[in-house]
Amino acid sequence: MRINIGRVLTYRKSSFVGFIALMTVYACVPTRTVREENKSVPEQYANQSSDTVNTAKMKWKEFFSDPYLVSLIDTALVHNQELNIMLQRVDMSKNEIKARKGEYLPFVNYFGGAEVEKVGEYTRNGAVEKNLDIREGEEFPEPLTNYSFGLTASWEIDVWKKLRNAKKSAVFEYLSTVEGKNFMVTTIVSEIANSYYELLAVDSQLAIIDQNLEIQENALKMVKLQKQAARATELAVKKFEAEVLKNKSHRFELKQQIVEMENKINFLVGRTPQKVARNSEDFIKGSVDAMYAGVPSQLLLNRTDVRQAELELEAAKLNISVAKANFYPSFDITTSVGLEAFKPKYLNTTPESLLYSVVGDVVGPLINRNAIKAAYKNANDKQIQAVFEYEKAILNAYIEVSNELSNIDNLKKSFDLKVGQVDALTESIDISIRLFQSARADYMEVLLTQRDALEATIELIETKKDQMIAQTAMYKALGGGWN
């Protein structure tokens, strides 16, 4: 429905008020109950103190002490493709703010035109023009040309704050994408650190295999000598040969894992396959720093994914207001000013060639409002969806920290026990060989002891790797790694 304000004002004031009242009645908005978000979290983690010291406050360059790992992360934060794609999304979201802001400011355009028209002489317009003189002695031109130029302006008066709320919603969406970018940084830092530790673990396993092969080959030589002296059988020789061949085969599997892990890191760093610089020595002896979880309420501030969900919720709330404003009439003002004449030489003849107009419009929904009703209901549903997303992010953050706290504690206990196991089995290798040489133990005891020692050492390396990865996971779960 379109009403020209210039005409409406000619009627009585009471008629105009009645019209607006009628529009307001028709613009009644259906109300819906909106669920409020629940931000409550436990006061502290299970079996933890209420100390607010939090490892998440550390910058990632301070958290990771390995210079090779720091260099990899630094390179990734510049060249990682996924992160650069995300940065473009952030920039597009920022541009959306400018677009929304421009909608509630006046639009000013310029225009210019030229046209020619010939009407039939035996028509009303033709008959009038035939007998019309512009000035004394100057007939109306035929065909008729027309030239014009000027400015037009239009402005929607944001009475219901629809446009301003849309702009504020765009701001929250932009801030949400920034937090999304920060969360991606945290994820990339974590993935590179985990892949780096896995690579160091495979390097250490390869070194242990090589050490064990040296021991097994020496044992194989000893068994062959024992066979020559009729103190061992061909079966013992074949068993030791098979064990040596099995571990040599396993070396190639580990080498393939190294190639794949290096390429995974290269992909995250955003470069072509190449050797990854690293220091794998003393990986098992690497220190595991203490982690400080703080209190659960800090997750609401430190976790970028939680903050992202919160900002998306705020944007969804504003979008409800925007959708609600569509039920109300909009107020538009359109104005134009310029010059118009049938010959260019008359364009500078004012006020004769001057043209201007001012129009005020009121436009509002009257019949068939199904589309805006659906949009309003969708906005409400999206707000409720955003509430659940926010609550899910909080719950997920709390559970992740709780899991990692337990994981770190159990891995420490497991590692300490496995260190004792490896020490005992390493000593038993020498004992079994001495007993075999003195015919007090058979070859299977030697073989099984060496196999058990190798498996226990590899398990120890895996546990150390899990400890390092658990530290990184804890740092990420607490909300660190993006600053």
UniProtKB/TrEMBL annotation:
Gene3D superfamilies: Outer membrane efflux proteins (OEP). Belongs to the outer membrane factor (OMF) (TC 1.B.17) family. GO terms for cellular component: plasma membrane. This is Outer membrane efflux protein. PROSITE patterns: PROKAR_LIPOPROTEIN. Keywords: Coiled coil, Lipoprotein, Membrane, Palmitate, Transmembrane, Transmembrane beta strand. It comes from the Bacteria. It holds the Pfam family OEP. One of its GO terms (molecular function) is efflux transmembrane transporter activity. Residues 444-471 form a coiled coil. The lineage of its organism: Bacteria, Pseudomonadati, Bacteroidota, Flavobacteriia, Flavobacteriales. InterPro entries: MdtP/NodT-like (IPR010131), OMP_efflux (IPR003423). PANTHER family: OUTER MEMBRANE CATION EFFLUX PROTEIN (PTHR30203), OUTER MEMBRANE PROTEIN-RELATED (PTHR30203:SF30). It is a lipid-anchor. SUPFAM superfamilies: Outer membrane efflux proteins (OEP). It is found in: Cell membrane.
